[in-house]
């Protein structure tokens, strides 16, 4: 994929071409220290660029047991999720450049991710949505808990949703407006000093009109 959207260039690259993404991740997640891990090599990396990198994400199309063995599957029991959605797009390490200050940037990211999901035949998008360590913003998640049929089970590190007031992360806010659901618990990530929740968006729940508007954002580069 190499397209234009809202004045941005949007493309997918391999790990060998994702140096700018790794640098942004290092800056935002680890105060400049290396953030690469074992999941990067087999993933594709989404780059959104305008006068340099404005946003990035790691995308992995997973099937069956690979869903259970992925980054998110190591933190949540996804047995029921994988049984319901046997091919899914794992979205992780989302970074939006803070100084970009563009409300359309999250929308461009959503459009690009939705395009990849459709193009790869994924039945759902999923990943971990990060919050501050105190859980600020989780108060807003009460009405979005996933149905029992595919809700993730708990692994070590699981804690109740704190229910602390605060804003939602921009990408999660977008996911929820398209029909996403979250876990009924959170997980503390001591490595990144965050609290995160499982988030999934079944492709079939995305309203047709909204999906059309998202895909219309993208034009050949």
Automatic annotation (TrEMBL):
It comes from the Bacteria. This is N-acyl amino acid synthase, PEP-CTERM/exosortase system-associated. It comes from Jannaschia seosinensis.
């Amino acid at each position: 994929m190499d397209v234009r959207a809202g004045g941005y260039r949007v493309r997918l690259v391999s790990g060998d071409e994702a140096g700018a993404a790794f640098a942004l991740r290092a800056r935002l997640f680890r105060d400049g220290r290396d953030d690469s891990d074992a999941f990067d090599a087999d993933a594709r990396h989404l780059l959104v660029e305008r006068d340099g990198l404005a946003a990035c994400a790691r995308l992995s199309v997973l099937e069956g047991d690979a869903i259970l063995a992925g980054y998110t599957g190591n933190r949540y029991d996804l047995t029921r999720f994988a049984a319901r959605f046997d091919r899914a797009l794992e979205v992780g390490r989302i970074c939006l450049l803070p100084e970009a200050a563009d409300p359309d940037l999250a929308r461009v990211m959503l459009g690009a991710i939705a395009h990849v999901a459709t193009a790869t035949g994924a039945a759902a998008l999923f990943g971990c949505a990060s919050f501050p360590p105190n859980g600020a913003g989780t108060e807003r998640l009460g009405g979005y808990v996933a149905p029992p049929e595919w809700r993730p089970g708990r692994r070590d590190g699981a804690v109740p949703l704190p229910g602390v007031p605060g804003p939602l992360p921009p990408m999660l806010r977008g996911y929820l407006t398209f029909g996403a659901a979250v876990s009924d618990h959170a997980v503390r990530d001591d490595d990144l000093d965050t609290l995160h929740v499982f988030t999934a968006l079944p492709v079939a729940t995305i309203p047709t009109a909204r999906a059309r508007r998202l895909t219309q954002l993208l034009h050949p580069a």
